[in-house]
């Protein structure tokens, strides 16, 4: 469980659409971006993220209405999980829960990567993706 303190200056607000008043949006604040998502990424990428940030959705309403994954569909897909070892955005317990409950063929780790592995460790992420393509294609 993620505590309220974890979200720092993230703002949560209901959508303006009165017919869907239970829907929530969020907007990551500069402290959250700096401390949680981009803490090891290049400063240029962090600053660009601050300029381009837009409200997002938790998709709770969509997820509550979606069908469960089936063994016939989702179960046939080879899954590989890449763990960014310095990811402060996803609790390690939750990552392990996902791996345990949605079994994967392989787990890879990128040392020194924050939540934005494509920015903090792009070469290492590319290497992982190439290895996955070679092993499981």
Automatic annotation (TrEMBL):
GO molecular function: methyl indole-3-acetate esterase activity; methyl jasmonate esterase activity; methyl salicylate esterase activity
Entry keywords, A to Z: Hydrolase
SUPFAM superfamilies from the UniProt entry: alpha/beta-Hydrolases (SSF53474)
GO aspect biological process, one term: salicylic acid metabolic process
InterPro entries: AB_hydrolase_fold, MES/HNL
Protein name: Polyneuridine-aldehyde esterase
